[in-house]
């Protein structure tokens, strides 16, 4: 039975240690061999070499073969060790090795052809290459070939190090400038900094190294510049910053992305089980299935941080439905909290049986943010989800989904998962690139983000204002589509590429509790959500919608049809699982961030263990963002709906008669007006609404009659 462990990571780490140690050994051997040879003219006893006899022989052989180019091997070994320890892709390591080989050959040839007569330091390789090329290319041509090969190899070899170098310089450089600031920067230097601060926003599509260097310049400016700056322009109109926003002192142009150190470093936990324990569990599972008449064998065990999947191959003639119906019985037999059965595993002739581990390994957000899957993503809207059942970090691109519907019962980890996604976006993007509209009817989860520069408006807590904000988003979508049509582009990416000086920011609308909005303003919210979900992708507007009540009256068919990507945390029943995922299984999750992810365009469910982010981490991130820039709020997004409702209505000729009637009778109702004025009920109800809006009558108060605020007005007689 094959037990799939994370052996590749272990091999990488062992290889990195071996290469690093070997590089140190080769460095000491070459250093002592070179010093002995230069001091006495000839190498002395091998015992005097710092690497001993082996080091002496190794240094002698390499020097004879490639000459002084042997020192390049030391650097190549250390670089390969770094790539192994950081789990770089195999293709990156191969390109580094090939580049190092080319650099070594080119440098050996250059040493043999150099004008300073250092040919003795070229080794046999340099002599052979020179003897092969000089008769055909002459000395100048051979020198040019050697230089090109060396530079090409050095470029390929050094390319993987650019993010490390840029990142190191990014954190070291500002320290020097803080020291310079303390020692009084020269006035001419401040003038140069002032000129640099007004550079245009960074162009989308930069390489990671260029982004790091751009961030470095931003950090330098933030440290040295002490001059006032112009406020940022508001999104959609004149803005009015809040009191907290006005207190922020950092200038708009000096934004630096948050460091990874704001998030907690996970402790090194022990992996669940070993080969013997897993084999024992597999045999026990086979025995329990045999007790119920299910013959077969476990062909593979896939351990993960929270659950372990046992791939069971049933014997010929065994129906899959029989195995699926044994979930509760297997949970009892395996002494597990819950057992989830994937029947069959897509692409395999096996049934996956997921059993919780005895000890649950926590999944921290920092693990996901530091993973290659997140760091190497090119999209601005990368969401950190967590780890799959094998412990592999899992992310998704919100721009491709393009909207996400999240559901889960109370205490299932839904709010923590939503916060993890928001934090991953804030960690990765600048306020100029992505803006947020956050709706939090519960006034608990999202209010902590008030005051960050990414917000278009303060966190919305009133359902009526939320409906107005969604209506504004629809109007903004329509405005953007008109703009895209005028410039002949098909999406926000094309527009930003053709207009790098005035890019359109992405807008992410986050709703923490949809059920409350649907209860208060169902029609307005559902209409706006439907239009945004259907059309907003190309305009750069995306939705993150969460609810703890995945019932059909909240997640209507229209809403579900336009949210192809969905996440379900633990729910209370199969019905809720079917409502959100169109499949069962979410009722058997373990809670605390355990989720099922339904990617768009497929019916295959992915089990993911959500990343945990604590309140302290969120507060540290928010405080950091508040110190970077002051938010510029646009309060006009709450006025769009009110202005629409304030449009003048057509005057009803029966209105004056209706007012006189309710004033004379001292009571008001639609049925009363309908009877006396002999009009339809809908028209009478509209007259009552106009009276309420103009202060003639009071609002409805349940079964009690409306209060009339006007006295009897002379009017025509009523029959």
């Amino acid at each position: 039975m094959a037990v799939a462990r994370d052996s590749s990571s272990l091999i990488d780490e062992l290889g990195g240690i071996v290469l690093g140690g070997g590089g140190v050994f080769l460095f000491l051997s070459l250093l002592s061999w070179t010093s002995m040879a230069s001091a006495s003219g000839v190498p002395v006893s091998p015992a005097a070499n710092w690497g001993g006899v082996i080091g002496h022989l190794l240094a002698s052989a390499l020097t004879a073969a490639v000459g002084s180019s042997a020192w390049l091997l030391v650097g190549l070994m250390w670089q390969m060790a770094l790539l192994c320890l950081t789990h770089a892709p195999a293709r990156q390591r191969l390109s580094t090795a090939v580049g190092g080989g080319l650099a070594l050959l080119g440098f050996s040839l250059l040493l043999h052809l150099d004008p300073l007569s250092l040919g003795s330091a070229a080794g046999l390789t340099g002599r052979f290459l020179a003897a092969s090329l000089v008769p055909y290319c002459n000395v100048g041509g051979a020198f040019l070939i050697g230089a090109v090969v060396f530079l090409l190899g050095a470029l390929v070899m050094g390319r993987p190090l650019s993010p490390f170098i840029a990142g190191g310089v990014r954190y070291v450089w500002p320290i020097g400038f803080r020291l310079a600031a303390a020692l009084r920067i020269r006035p001419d230097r401040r003038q140069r900094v002032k000129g640099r601060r007004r550079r245009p926003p960074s162009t989308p599509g930069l390489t990671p190294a260029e982004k790091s260097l751009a961030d470095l310049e931003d950090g330098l400016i933030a440290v040295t510049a002490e001059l006032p700056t112009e406020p940022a322009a508001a999104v959609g109109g004149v803005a009015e910053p809040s009191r907290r926003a006005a207190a922020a002192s950092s200038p708009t142009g000096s934004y630096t992305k948050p460091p990874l150190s704001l998030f907690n470093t996970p402790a090194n936990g022990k992996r669940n089980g070993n080969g013997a324990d897993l084999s024992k569990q597999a045999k026990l599972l086979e025995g329990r299935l045999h007790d119920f008449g299910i013959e077969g064998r476990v062909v593979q065990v896939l351990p993960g941080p929270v659950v372990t999947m046992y791939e069971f191959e049933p014997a010929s003639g065994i129906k899959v439905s029989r195995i699926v119906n044994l979930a509760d019985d297997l949970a009892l037999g395996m002494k597990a909290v819950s057992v989830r059965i994937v029947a069959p595993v897509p692409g395999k002739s096996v049934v996956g049986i997921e059993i919780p581990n005895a000890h649950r390994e926590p999944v921290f957000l920092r693990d996901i943010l530091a993973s290659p899957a997140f760091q190497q993503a090119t999209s601005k809207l990368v969401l950190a989800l967590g780890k799959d059942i094998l412990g592999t970090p899992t992310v998704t691109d919100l721009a491709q989904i393009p909207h996400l519907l999240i559901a889960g019962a109370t205490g299932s980890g839904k709010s923590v998962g939503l916060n993890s996604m928001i934090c991953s976006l804030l960690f990765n993007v600048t306020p100029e690139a992505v803006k947020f509209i956050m709706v939090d009817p519960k006034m608990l989860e999202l209010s902590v983000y008030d005051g960050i520069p990414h917000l278009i408006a303060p966190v919305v807590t009133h359902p009526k204002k939320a409906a107005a904000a969604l209506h504004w988003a629809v109007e903004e979508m329509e405005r953007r589509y008109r703009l895209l049509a005028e410039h002949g582009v098909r999406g926000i990416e094309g527009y930003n590429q053709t207009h790098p000086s005035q890019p359109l920011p992405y807008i992410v609308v986050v709703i923490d509790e949809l059920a409350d909005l649907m209860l208060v303003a169902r029609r307005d919210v559902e209409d706006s959500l439907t239009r945004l979900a259907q059309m907003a992708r190309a305009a750069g507007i995306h939705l993150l919608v969460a609810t703890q009540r995945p019932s059909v009256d909240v997640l209507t068919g229209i809403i579900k049809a336009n949210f192809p990507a969905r996440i379900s945390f633990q729910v209370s029943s199969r019905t809720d699982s079917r409502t959100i995922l169109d499949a069962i299984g979410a009722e058997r999750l373990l809670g605390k961030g355990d989720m099922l992810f339904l990617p768009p365009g497929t019916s295959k469910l992915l089990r993911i263990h959500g990343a945990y982010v604590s309140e302290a981490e969120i507060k540290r991130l928010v405080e950091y963002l508040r110190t970077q820039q002051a938010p510029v709020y646009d309060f006009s997004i709450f006025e769009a709906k009110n202005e629409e409702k304030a449009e003048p209505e057509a005057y009803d000729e029966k209105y004056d008669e209706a007012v006189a009637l309710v004033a004379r009778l001292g009571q008001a109702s639609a049925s009363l007006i309908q009877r006396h004025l002999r009009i339809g009920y809908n028209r009478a109800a509209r007259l009552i609404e106009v009276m309420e809006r103009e202060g003639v009558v009071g609002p409805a108060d349940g079964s009690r009659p409306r209060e009339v605020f006007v006295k009897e007005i002379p009017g025509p007689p009523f029959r």
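The longest helix spans residues 123-158. Residues 275-356 form a domain with the Threonyl-tRNA Synthetase; Chain A, domain 2 fold (CATH 3.30.980.40).
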